[in-house]
């Protein structure tokens, strides 16, 4: 560690050298608040395992993803070790922490707290970027004028939804959907048009590492959920087996992304001439599928730990929380989303379609079709078997491509 990090003079990141792509300690510190937010999301779905709560959880997950990835983009252009940028990150952490405490009641009594904090974070970050960039990077400052305009419109929908309970879900879905369309249109705004693609040139290595760390956060949260649930259950053969299945699923998901794919993708974007379009598709859009897959897997794992054989819950709680259709759907659906996300990610960074992943998705659909014959614990282990086969197929494809093209390390790492 150098003593000069806290006294960075320029608010902009350098465009070359190690500092252009280094993930700073304050960025890692910033990520901690999102560990709590992810825990709140998974706990809400575990407490209320039904389709409406699933829909609400997915909506809030996408909204939180936009909050996190937007901040990652900003710290790609602005130096996180500059005192003013640090102040921005600390302020976002504060409001994000309050927002996270409101997640369990985000669609109830704390809707205005959640929506208010969300709009303050998103709009405040854009205003800060406009001021910080206006002198040294006016074209990027205009980029944030466009982004801020979109956020302001979406913010109206967020606040309106918080104030109108009957229309809340529709207004919040509209807010998330509208903002999700922004990067596709390059935040086209009446009067000033769309942001030129060259303005979105960023450090590919930095955004790749930040996205990988996001997955580490969610995988870490799944370990916390598994450990907590196992500590609250009676020790027995079924609970021990469910604990093993939950831990195995976390390891397999880590291997699917980090064994070969992450490094190859990082090298691909680092060597690209135009990094913005790749970062937009590969790391901004596609990675949310990976986050959702891991989050839902953590929820499914805890439900299996609580009811490995599918026992019914207490009276008055509606559908049994350990019922095979619900838990099997979470298990198979989460793994399928994760495999599909990895396949899309591989393709988006120059690799071929990952056939093993697509076949894995089909296998999981077939597994769900047989769920009436299987207990949740059995479905969990069979889902892990599918993931294991895909991991082995990935590694085999890697070794084969390595022998076929020993001098092309980038294609070797991306190909599986």
UniProtKB/TrEMBL annotation:
PANTHER family: BLL5714 PROTEIN (PTHR36840)
TM region(s), chain numbering: 28-46, 58-75, 87-107, 113-132, 144-163, 169-189, 210-230, 242-260, 281-300, 320-341, 353-375, 381-398
Keywords on record: Membrane, Transmembrane, Transmembrane helix
Domain of life of the organism encoding this protein: Bacteria
Keyword 4Fe-4S annotated: no
Upper classification of the organism: Bacteria, Bacillati, Actinomycetota, Actinomycetes, Micrococcales
Protein name from the UniProt record: Low temperature requirement protein A
Protein species of origin: Amnibacterium flavum
């Amino acid at each position: 560690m150098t003593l000069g990090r806290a006294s960075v003079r320029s608010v902009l990141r350098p465009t070359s050298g190690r500092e252009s792509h280094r993930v700073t300690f304050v960025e890692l510190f910033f990520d901690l608040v999102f560990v709590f937010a992810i825990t709140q999301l998974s706990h809400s779905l575990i407490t209320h395992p039904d389709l409406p709560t699933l829909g609400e959880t997915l909506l809030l997950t996408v909204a939180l993803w936009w909050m996190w990835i937007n901040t990652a983009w900003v710290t790609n252009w602005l130096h996180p070790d500059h005192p003013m940028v640090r102040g921005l990150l600390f302020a976002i952490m504060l409001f994000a922490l309050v927002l996270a405490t409101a997640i369990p009641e985000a669609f109830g009594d704390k809707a205005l707290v959640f929506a208010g904090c969300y709009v303050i974070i998103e709009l405040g970050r854009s205003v800060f970027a406009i001021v910080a960039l206006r002198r040294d990077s006016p074209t990027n400052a205009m980029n944030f004028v466009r982004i801020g305009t979109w956020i302001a419109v979406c913010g109206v929908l967020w606040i309106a939804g918080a104030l109108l309970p009957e229309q809340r879900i529709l207004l919040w879905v509209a807010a998330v959907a509208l903002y999700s369309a922004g990067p596709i249109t390059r935040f086209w705004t009446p009067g000033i048009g769309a942001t030129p693609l060259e303005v979105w040139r960023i450090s590919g290595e930095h955004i790749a590492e930040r996205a990988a760390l996001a997955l580490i956060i969610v995988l870490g949260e799944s370990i916390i959920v598994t450990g907590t649930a196992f500590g609250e259950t009676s020790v027995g053969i079924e609970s021990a087996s469910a604990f093993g299945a939950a831990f195995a699923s976390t390891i397999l998901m880590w291997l699917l992304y980090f064994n070969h794919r992450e490094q190859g993708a990082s090298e691909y974007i680092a060597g690209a001439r135009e990094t913005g379009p790749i970062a937009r598709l590969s790391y901004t859009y596609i990675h949310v599928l990976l986050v959702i897959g891991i989050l839902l897997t953590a929820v499914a794992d805890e439900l299996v730990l609580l009811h490995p054989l599918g026992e019914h819950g207490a009276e008055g709680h509606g559908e049994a929380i350990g019922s095979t259709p619900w838990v099997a759907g979470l298990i198979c659906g989460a793994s399928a989303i994760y495999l599909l996300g990895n396949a899309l990610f591989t393709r988006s960074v120059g690799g071929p379609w990952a056939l093993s992943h697509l076949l894995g998705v089909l296998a999981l659909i077939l597994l769900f079709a047989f769920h009436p014959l299987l207990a949740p614990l059995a479905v969990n282990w069979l889902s892990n078997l599918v993931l294991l086969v895909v991991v082995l197929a990935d590694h085999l494809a890697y070794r084969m491509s390595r022998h076929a093209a020993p001098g092309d390390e980038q294609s070797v790492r991306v190909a599986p």
